[in-house]
Amino acid sequence: MEYLDNLPPMDLMRSEKMTFVQLIIPVESAHRAISYLGQLGLLQFRDLNDEKSPFQRTFVNQVKRCAEMSRKLRFFKDQIHKAGLLPSPHPASQPDIELEELEMQLAEHEHELIEMNSNTEKLQQTYNELLEFKMVLQKASDFLVSSRSNSTVQEREMVENVYSNDHYADTASLLEQEMQPGPSVQSGVRFVSGIICKSKVLTFERMLFRATRGNMFFNQAAADDQILDPSSNEMVEKTVFVVFFSGEQARTKILKICEAFGANCYPVPEDVTKRMQITREVSSRLSELETTLDAGTRHRDKALTSIGFQLAKWMNMVGREKAVYDTLNMLNFDVTKKCLVGEGWCPIFAKAKIQEALQRATFDSNSQVGIIFHVMDAVEPPPTYFRTNRFTSAFQEIVDAYGVANYQEANPAVYTVVTFPFLFAVMFGDWGHGICLLLGALVLIARERKLGSQKLGSFMEMLFGGRYVLLLMSIFSIYCGLIYNEFFSVPFHIFGESAYKCRDSSCSDARSIGLIKSRDPYPFGVDPSWRGSRTELPFLNSLKMKLSILLGVVQMNLGIILSYFNARFFGNSLDIKYQFVPQMIFLNCLFGYLSLLIVIKWCSGSQADLYHVMIYMFLSPFEDLGENKLFWGQGVLQVILLLCAVVAVPWMLFPKPFILKRLHTERFQGRTYGLLGTSDMNIDDEPDSARQHQEDFNFSEEFVHQMIHSIEFVLGAVSNTASYLRLWALSLAHSELSTVFYEKVLLLAWGYENIIIRLVGLAVFAFATAFILLMMETLSAFLHALRLHWVEFQNKFYHGDGYKFRPFSFASLTDDDD
């Protein structure tokens, strides 16, 4: 035991030792002190104003100012994005400015940008109207000219052939009246011209037809140019239309429908000379507006570019200021003493750094009074803080996703670094697929610096964060693939010749019959001659199933051993005597014994049926084992192990609750009565008072809790061991899927002489390998390995009821903003 105590501590085995501290900061140095602590990032403040709303806190006005500046900066960022400009990733080096000066600059820039946007919007609207007017004049002129020429021909035909009577004007239709010569106003036919969105044309025409009861003629033509929509800033396709009608009532209806559909109507004179003159004037004004708009856009882009050079620096500055004032709002403000009082947690190793930062803040702010920093006792448990690096952080996140470790509790991440990728590889074992995963992991690691500075999608961000997990998973997959001797399901003679050969020269099918053992066993992994043999599946099933049980028992024993180190660290001897010891006895008397039988059977080459041995160990423990006997004294040993396992169950269940009750009674016997005579003491306010301890301890609750824990362990020992058989099932499924794709797709296609069939088969094989075996199977094996760690391994010792250490840090603030 002394040897264990003298061992050097592991970095990740226990969380960092924390201490609860109090700060008393003079007002004149408070802002600078919090800023220096934010740069250090090693102190987690506790909110002392939790009962106050955000609007009742001391520095609420400063927070509002910072929020308003953040809104303006987001507005600048949106404007830069809309203009198609890129903010400079490296801000220009300019002297630092104060927050008040920055606030004035931001207000000026915002006012200038809003004014420029308003002017540009008005000019763009005028430009759009003139452009629409120009297109309406062009298209409507074509309609009117064609209508006039058609009317001349129709008039001549009507005079010569058909309409020779005097009553024609009374009976002619609206379209025929339109085609008569002379001014349209004299004949009663009028028209409305305009432009409308192309997507609304069909509905618009149908509505006009119904409103006028068919007494109208609708002409349309697609506009030559797309028009910029100022509201959405997108180019929109539009259609020019001309509606011929008769009567003032119809005109009123048509104009209302145009207004409802958002169609813009423009007056087009019938006189050709006037149309040409108006067209020239519109074109002249359009060219002037284009020049003005271009000049305005250049001026606006220049202003946005100058803002973009400083945008990142300003956003960082405002974000830091807001975080500082939010933190100051968590402190108690004492008006009489002119100081702020704060409390929080920090690692013990950071005390010297924090004191140095506070002294620097006092000196830089020219304060006459120093900042008081002292350690206090805390009632609440400390936060959990593990110092991780790029390699270990992903494994720590896997554990934290289940639950954050209690303070100073044994950390499963230490062992997860190795056991997680190894159990994944047991299910994914194929060194061809492992090489593919390895190449992907190496690409992510090689481009680590570039990808780390970019904003990635959710999937790529998850993949990049787990790049080192993927690296170890691929390396272990190659190792297990070499043991299984599978390269895309194909075996290779890597480590020498097979131990089997044909019995004689007449052996025609060496894959299935006539094989005899001729030399020493294959030196590493599965002999390639098992591939394709009649006993391949029974052999591999037996091998992988037994390996799964061995790995499961080893990992569950590791979990129970870690519970011993937890109990020893926290000085809980009851957990060692009445939980660790009976749990080790129960698990190893049953499943540890099964693992021993597996190893003995492998070493001796016995044909004993282990199913029969384990079943009849419970049903008839005194029966003779017969041919299933593996070693001398096995029957006696089985009886002893069974009795030990039976005794371990009440050992776990009964002693601990009764011992706790006795200790509690002895500890507080007589003290409760002694406190009755003290009237000046409030017992409820004292954490160590007898009354609170009396209320905290409940024997029936403790007994029920222990009973649940014992039953859960006994049943879990069986179910958890069976759960590790997923290693066998997933490995078998991966191997069989890989075999099916290789034999039924690639080899089948390669059997044809046609090059096209071969290429198609190769493409299908590559697609199935990439998306099914390398993506879906990887995800499946990952999730099953996750389950084995969270449930089967961690439930033996890990509580996970803690909370993370979240210090006030400008670095984490930048990550959140990005």
From TrEMBL:
UniProt xrefs under InterPro entries:
V-ATPase_116kDa_su (IPR002490), V-type_ATPase_116kDa_su_euka (IPR026028)
The protein's GO terms of the molecular function aspect are: ATPase binding; proton-transporting ATPase activity, rotational mechanism
Superkingdom: Eukaryota
**Has UniProt tagged this entry with the keyword Transmembrane?**
yes
Q: Where is the signal peptide?
A: none
This protein's membrane topology, according to the annotation, is: Multi-pass membrane protein
Where does the sequence pass through the membrane?
A: 422-445, 466-484, 547-565, 585-602, 631-654, 755-776
What Pfam family is a match for this entry? V_ATPase_I
Keyword annotations for this protein, in alphabetical order, are: Coiled coil, Hydrogen ion transport, Ion transport, Membrane, Transmembrane, Transmembrane helix, Transport
Q: GO CC: one term?
A: vacuolar proton-transporting V-type ATPase, V0 domain
Ranges in coiled-coil conformation: 97-126
For biological process, the GO terms are: vacuolar acidification
Where does the record place it? Membrane
Q: Please give the function described in this protein's UniProt entry.
A: Essential component of the vacuolar proton pump (V-ATPase), a multimeric enzyme that catalyzes the translocation of protons across the membranes. Required for assembly and activity of the V-ATPase.
Family named by the database record:
Belongs to the V-ATPase 116 kDa subunit family.
Record protein name field: V-type proton ATPase subunit a
